[in-house]
Fold S-formylglutathione hydrolase.
Amino acid sequence: MDINVYLPASYDAGKIHATPVLIYLAGLTCSPANGAEKAFFQPYADKYGFAVVYPDTSPRGAGIDGEDENWDFGTGAGFYCDATTEKYKDHYRMYSYINEELPVLLAEKFAGLDFDTVSLTGHSMGGYGALAIYLKNAGKYKSVSAFAPISNPSNCPWGEKCFGGYLGDDRAAWLEYDPTVLIKKYDGPVAPILIHQGLADAFHYRDNQLQPENFLKASEESKFKGKVSVNLVEKFDHSYFFIASFAKEHAEHHAKYLGLVGPSL
Amino acid sequence: MDINVYLPASYDAGKIHATPVLIYLAGLTCSPANGAEKAFFQPYADKYGFAVVYPDTSPRGAGIDGEDENWDFGTGAGFYCDATTEKYKDHYRMYSYINEELPVLLAEKFAGLDFDTVSLTGHSMGGYGALAIYLKNAGKYKSVSAFAPISNPSNCPWGEKCFGGYLGDDRAAWLEYDPTVLIKKYDGPVAPILIHQGLADAFHYRDNQLQPENFLKASEESKFKGKVSVNLVEKFDHSYFFIASFAKEHAEHHAKYLGLVGPSL
């Protein structure tokens, strides 16, 4: 698996487990390059002193018949779940990769990183991934944020296609990854959740793929009541310009919960 | 001509001519998107309060036979000069476009921009363009900087190909655009010139296309003696990661000469 890692200026391999980590999960079609090249987290990673990890969005070249036929399923579209269908279950295990395998591998390579102090963010499919992984692992991650997340994937075309292909027809299995379902049964420590959604994002207003309002509504029946902030921003679409424009706010948010700034920020 | 413009948060169309401008000239093959998406100037543009203008690197679709056959000549490779050869002289006038036409057009569209307070930066071919335009127009621009500039184009393969194609065989005409020649006869106001060059940049160490050392040496016989800083940085190549990594230093440099920070910076 390819990966990009940004180490802040303050990173010191000799300071064992000293540098917190923000994991950025990218969206459909993306590689580790998109976030590293265009999301603009690095200036703030430097300012606050956290590393940024940019994983890939699926296995590559698994050799599964049909995996390269769609831009929104298979290669580039691993959907941050562990597949159970016969065709995909051996290779498409992005949930375990992000949540378990990757931190161990990176900790071996970069001794200065602190994988007990990790937050999650992501865009679109990656925004869903960040929310799902955070909510499925109460207390493991310090905070989560998302840019235009697929907030209710069991209830939109992208989610139906990917969950159907990776998890099969039993919709009960899909709900185990759906942030809008997961938040209601979450029972761990609560940090505010920061979400931005562009109002010129056609995947939102035209295609109904994102539905952050469903997530917000569900949060009102959860421990996160009053703690989920969905910022609807005019004129912004689904592009990386949108992410880059609000990277500062998300970085400040995570810096606070990663213990890198005082509460007065 | 396509163009990208970043207006800082402080931009106010009602404050006529209040916002200084940094023009970013991109390298061979680039469009206005490369710098806007990957050079990371925007966070610092916001901090200091200058706009960033990202022009294209050539005309597009001029319909000249052969203009699309090379990645380093013709489309995407206008080389910031005014062509005089029969085939190219009607359309390939990037020098006049950047230096004269574009500021007038942008001032009409964005009344808040101050085109009397402009600085130049650029990468590779665009680094050459920034240096050449600055040195050919003494006093017009407040400062110039460059990332891995083609510093002595009359003396390297890229320059020989482009100058030959756009200006013809008379090398005397080439020298009118060569920063390493121009700096020696410059007789205007002097602001320090900031240059970064990656030592893992194959165009530098393998192909001899960049030659910032020639420019530095020439500066010692000029009004810029002691004022040109060529920072050789280990491990960096020719990519936008290199630019993004030093965008902060270049932005601070220009902010100072654009009058946006005190001399204590």
Observations:
- The mean pLDDT of chain A is 96.
- The longest strand of chain A covers residues 113-122.
- Chain A touches chain B through eleven residues (CB under 8 Å).
- The beta strands of chain A are 3-6, 19-25, 51-55, 113-122, 145-147, 193-198, 228-233.
